[in-house]
Amino acid sequence: MAHRELLARHRSVMPNWLALYYEQPIEIASAHGRRVTDREGRTYLDFFAGILTNAIGYDVAEISDAIRSQLDTGVLHSSTLYLIKSQVELAEKIAELSGIPDAKVFFTNSGTEANETALMLATQYRRSEQVLALRNSYHGRAFATVAITGIRGWSASALSPIKVSWVHGGYRYRSPFRELSDADYIKACVADLREVIETTTAGDVACMIVEPIQGVGGFTTPPDGLFGEFKKVLDEYGILLVSDEVQTGWGRTGEHFWGIQAHDVVPDAITFAKGLGNGLAIGGVVARANLTDCLRANSISTFGGNPLATTGALAALNYLLEHDLQANAGRLGSRLLDGLRAVAAAQPVVGDVRGKGLMIALELVGPDGEPNPAAAVALLEETRDRGLLVGKGGLYGNVIRLAPPMTLTQAEAEEALEILAQSIEAVAKEVQQR
Questions:
Q1: Which InterPro entries match (predicted)?
Q2: Rounded CA separation 9/2 (Å)
Q3: Cα→Cα distances 238→16, 77, 179, 223, 281, Å
Q4: CB 152 within 8 A of CB 228
Q5: Most CB atoms within 10 A, among 65, 143, 261, 421?
Q6: pTM score > 0.90 for this model?
């Protein structure tokens, strides 16, 4: 009853386009560890973590205590017109972790802002409004980031401050090159990149922006090394490479701290957000100093990198590093992938199981392999009914996304696998009966 009443109030004052999960949406009222409890008292194992944002989990003492210590100072905000010690300390740590030589950091409030900033820097540095982006990508909801979003369902406007050219590579499962080996797939995508530059641009492109694993696009995972080969072509033209690590950063892929490292390349800039703040609003760009310093006009960020957000984020990052959550993501991610692939082998409704670490996707398909968004919606509901919260995405809305907090335990992984197996079986039966 509480949810129904709040939903009616929500719909009366919030935009129609503001998406909600579930036929009967829920409010998260409390949480601890990897479990959340809704307003009506039902508890769930959370496998989407506020869209990968609650990376450390809920009610973590070390992070909560750091936030309380900042609250106790009475200073929640001062603006970037003043020195902020926690901001400097966090920037120092991120610059070192980035692997980018001579790096500097600018903080924002979100991933959208981070990507907008990266585009502004790249276009100013290169004196060009031309940008390369991947098909099936998602980079945010602001003016320029909508322009570089290659998913029709999330591209709200055709108007744009930049000129975008689209490149193959991120979404292998439905790519025209999908039957190729890894090496030949990379060659085909590199050839496409070169052709796009030569035929759709004036050559003086500002940057290429890529997600090492496409998030909203359905956790699509290209072969390792693809973006390293892309960088060789980009360097021929002086084009910058921006890695959007809003979802892949902070060790979530298990293999590496940044997703782009699987491609044996150091980008010119990395954008980040989500998991860094463990629920606090923070994002940013880390890039070569000559790129970050290229602006010739005054600029600040009123709220970006504020004392509260950077204090909490610094505590979250320290916790992540001290507890080696990257290794945990790799270990439990492998178990989840193996378990889900075993389930999928017996259930044709699952066309693909993919991902790395604790960033895993199930692509739901029809009898001829066509996208099956109805099955994804059904699986979303089935898992919730069994006490598991998951995400959804994909170009066709037919992908279930799994991204639990990186503090996930072995027992919780096994619990989720059992729920997913039961839910997939139920959806498969429902599909067969139609």
A1: Aminotrans_3 (IPR005814), PyrdxlP-dep_Trfase (IPR015424), PyrdxlP-dep_Trfase_major (IPR015421), PyrdxlP-dep_Trfase_small (IPR015422)
A2: 11
A3: 43, 40, 32, 24, 34
A4: no
A5: 261
A6: yes
Question: Which whole-number Å values give the CA distances from 387 to 37, 44, 45, 250, 417, in the listed order?
Answer: 10, 5, 6, 27, 12
Q: Which residue has the tokens 């909490």?
A: 312
Tens digit of pLDDT for each residue in 288-333? 999 999 999 998 999 999 999 999 999 999 999 999 999 999 999 9
Alpha-helical segments (H) within 303-409:
307-322, 325-345, 373-385
The structure tokens 């004196």 sit at 127
Rg of the chain (C-alpha set)? 21
Q: List the structure tokens of 41.
A: 């008292």
For residue 324, what pLDDT is reported?
98
Q: Report the alpha-carbon angle 408-414-418, nearest 5.
A: 130
Alpha helix segments (H runs only) across 127-181? 143-147
Task: Judge contact between 207 and 242, C-beta under 8 A.
Answer: yes
At 384, the amino acid letter reads: R
Q: How many CB atoms lie within 10 A of CB 272?
A: 29
CA distance 97 to 115: 19
Can you read off the two tokens belonging to residue 150?
């290659």
Residues 407-414 have a mean pLDDT of 98
The set of residues, in sequence order, having a beta carbon less than 8 Å from that of 324 and lying 6+ positions away, is none
What are the C-alpha distances in Å from 426 to residues 103, 302, 338, 375, 419?
50, 50, 20, 10, 11
| Residues 145, 112 contacting (CB under 8 angstroms) | yes
Contact 267, 235 (CB under 8 A): no
DSSP state of 222: P
Provide CB contacts within 8 A for 312, sequence distance 6+: 63, 66, 67, 70, 277, 278, 280, 282
Alpha-carbon gap, residue 308 to 311, rounded angstroms? 5
Question: Of 346, 337, 338, 336, which Cα lies nearest the Cα of 424?
Answer: 346
d(C-alpha 254, C-alpha 358), whole Å? 7
Task: Tell me what percent of the residues of the chain surpass a pLDDT of 90.
Answer: 96
Backbone angles phi, psi at 267, to 5 degrees: -75, 170
Show the tokens assigned to 298. 């005054």
Token code pair at residue 287: 């890039």
DSSP state string for 68-107: HHHHHHT-S---TTS--HHHHHHHHHHHHHH--TTEEEEE
pLDDT digits (tens, 9 = 90+) for 368-397: 999 999 999 999 999 999 999 999 999 999
pLDDT tens digits for range 83-95: 999 999 999 999 9
Chain length of the chain: 434
